[in-house]
Structure formats: C-alpha cells, structure tokens
Amino acid sequence: MRNRGGGGGMAAALVLLPVLAYLVCPSVAAGPRQRKGSADLGGERVLQVGMTLVPGAEAKGAVCLDGSPPAYHLDRGFGTGARNWLLQFEGGGWCNDVASCLLRSTTGHGSSRLMRKVEYFSGILSDDPSHNPDFYNWNRVKLRYCDGASFGGDSSYINDTMLLHFRGQRIWEAIILDLLPKGLDIAQKALLSGCSAGGLATFLHCDDFRRLLPESATVKCLSDAGFFLDVADIVGNYTMRSFFDSVVALQVSPLLLSYGLSNDSFALMQLHDPSVFPACRCLGKYNETLTQTALALAATPNSSITFLYPRMPISVGIGVAANKIQRHAILIRSLFCMVCYRNQMLVALRSSGDMGRGLYINSCFAHCQSELQDTWFAPDSPRIHNKTIAQTIGDWYFERGNASEIDGAYPCDHTCHNAIPLEQELV
Questions:
Q1: Maximum distance among all alpha carbons in the chain?
Q2: Which residues of the chain carry a pLDDT beneath 50?
Q3: What is the reported pLDDT for 306?
Q4: Where is the signal peptide (predicted)?
Q5: What's the order of all strands across the beta sheet hosting 2-5?
Q6: Can you give the pLDDT at residue 403?
Q7: How far apart are CA 93 and CA 244, in angstroms?
Q8: Which of 266, 344, 285, 262 is nearest to 310 (CA)?
Q9: Taking the CA atoms of the chain, what radius of gyration do you get in angstroms?
Q10: Between β-strands 163-166 and 155-158, what pairing exists: parallel, antiparallel or unpaired?
C-alpha cells in the first residue's frame, strides 16, 4: 500500500492547516445567459441550474475520489453583471483516512456520477434582485466538491483492491481553465466564496485566483463558516488538530514531498502567551489554557462570515452522557465553554490585521448562512445592527460603508435561525 504524489500548484502546499483565516477578493466576465429552469420551494421560485462536466479533466488527472470527472454549475450573468463572476465552493466536510475516503467515494461528495445533476441557486447564488441585490446578475458558478480535502490535495492511494484519487488541487485548476475562455479571463469584478470545507478552500485558493485574473479586476474572497480554531473541545481533546493532521498526511503530504518539503515545514506554531490567548476556564477538569495556531493569511483582501458557537464540541460532550441529568450538566458546561470559545475566536480574528478584511460574526447555531435565502437576505433574516449578511457583504465588496459586524454572546441575538434549538439537545 502506498501514497503517490503528483504535480500541482504551490498553493496546495499551504493547504489544510488545522486553523484558518478570513476571506479574499476577485472579478470576472460573462456571455449569454443560460437558464435551466426553476422550481417552487416554500412558495418562492428558485433557479435550477444543470451540471457541466469539465471536458478533458480526466486526461489531466483532475478527477474525483472515484476517478470520475469534476463538475460545476454555471448560470450566466447579464446586463451590468455580464463581466462579473461569483464562484462558490461547495462544502461537505473532509475524509481523513482510507476508510472514510472510500466511503465518501460512494457518495455525491466523492463521485460526479452520484451528484445531483441539477442544483438550486439560492442565497448568494440567487438570480432574483429582491433576494440577492448585489450579485443576482453576475455569472454565478457552484464548484462541486468531490475530493475530500477542500480542493487541496494531489496524491493517490492504491493497493490490490482499490484506487483512490486525491486530486483536489487539479480539480480546482481544471475548472478554472475551463471557465477562463468562457469570460472569466476578462472579468471586471470577481468574488470567490465558499462555506465550511468550501470556506477553507476559499482561503487556500484566493491568492491563486487573484493571479489568474486581469490586474484591473476587483478580486475578493469570502469564507462562510470556514474559520477553524485549534482549541480543545469540552472533553479536553484537540479534535480539529488531530483531524486535519490526518487529512494533510493522507492527501497533501505527497504533494509537499514533490517540492522537497516535509510536514515539519508546516508544523503548527502554538501560542501559549496568556496575554494573547487568556485562560478559558470551562469547569473543573475542563480548565484549559487557550492555544491558537498561527494563521496563514492570504495577501488578497478578504472577508468572513462565521458563527461563534460550533455544534461539534457540544455534540461530543452531550453524546457521551449516560442520562438526562448528566446531559443537563454537560450542556451547562458547554455554555461556559462556548463563551470562552467566542472570546477566543474574536481575539484570533482581530489579531490578524486589517488588509481590507470584513467580518460578519453572529452567535447563531447555524452553518452556511450565505447559501440559504432565509439567512442571506429575507424579511426575517438574522441581523446585526439591523444589517443582514447580504447587506454587510455588499458593503464590504463595493466599499460602501462599515463591513465589520459582531453581535453579542448567546442568547442575545433574537434574529437567529438556530439550526438546533438548545432544548432539542436535551431530549
């Protein structure tokens, strides 16, 4: 059994550190509008866009985990947005060992053969000016995610019974090369965005995206829930650190070796200075000194949407409780820890400098808020200082005003659309 490295852009060498940073900026072009239809969801019309398989990608080794070609969905811009582009990385977690990647290869997150052939475009991808006032008439592209490492690896795994392709970097390059002659190469404005694993991909590829577009283009990047802190969870484990370490070892390390580098070249720098990351006392044995991995910051202007309270640490603690009393106790401990986590994240974000970054940080139990119409721009969307996510991102991109919005600690924000109400966690 062995891992095999491969070629790829240097950007991949910076991929998948256990902690991430903010968002960045870019621009693009267009052609005749290509509609695929619409559907009625909840009483509202939502655009449906068909899939495009990248031609010639397989010959370049740009393939999904199972060897199928990569894919994207494109809805053409029109009018004043005909030469502007918005590219959205699909999210969907990661796989960090052969077993999880093999399982993933049998799903739509590992094979284009199993993907939905039509995608709904809502939120930041909507073509309705009343739902997406700043980007509705841009060329909007959804990049499908099928490599398991945020479009970042370039290696493979083979034994006597299986072959897995870890070619996220090549997939990114193949999609961009296919879009450039479709108008991306003459872009005037561009925005590279993504959520969760796609938000991480935004950080990884933002500067590369900037380099590929005209110097005159306005290029920025947006990461929605793509900032992951290297901190202990409520049971004291550094879950994110160990998880991302294994992703890098499986999918990215062979690429580093092809450049004569090693994992040690990208070792995490732990910061234990309490003046920078003050001690977080959750309760009892869960007292921890907060640590943080040094952020690998992109040079291109960027912005970030994030939520302050991750669901995973709560689920880990509550899931191991034997009875309801224990679950209540762990929930209370979780709330204390989440306040600490909130403070730690704010310190990490603020310590990273300006560089044209924007922030929209709310305290909602939610994920991928830019992709859903209800949370992106609607009458009852979450708001900070009466500004929706869409309004803040528009102000940041077009430099219309303040683009740094941070709300109070939970449960102060009553505009949230909480994905999992706390009372459900106690059932």
A1: 62
A2: 1-2, 4-35, 265-299, 307-322, 355, 421-427
A3: 52
A4: 1-29
A5: 2-5, 155-158, 163-166
A6: 85
A7: 11
A8: 344
A9: 21
A10: antiparallel
Token couple for 30: 């267009």
Tokens of 367: 């994920």
DSSP annotation string for 170-199: HHHHHHHHHHGGGTGGG-SEEEEEEETHHH
Give me the pLDDT at residue 201, please: 94
User: Which tokens go with 4?
Assistant: 């095999």
pLDDT value for 343: 79
Look up residue 226 and give its DSSP letter: -
DSSP notation for 73-95 = EEE---GGGTTEEEEEE------
C-alpha dist (Å) from residue 393 to 24, 78, 185: 12, 21, 24
What number of CA atoms fall less than 13 Å from residue 166's CA on the CB side? Answer: 33
- CA dist., res. 197 & res. 224, Å (int): 9
CB 290 within 8 A of CB 277: yes
Phi, psi (rounded to 5 degrees) for 269: -100, 110
State residue 361's pLDDT score: 86
Give the other-Cβ count within 10 Å of 133's Cβ: 14
Tell me, what amino acid is at 145? Y
**pLDDT at residue number 284:** 34
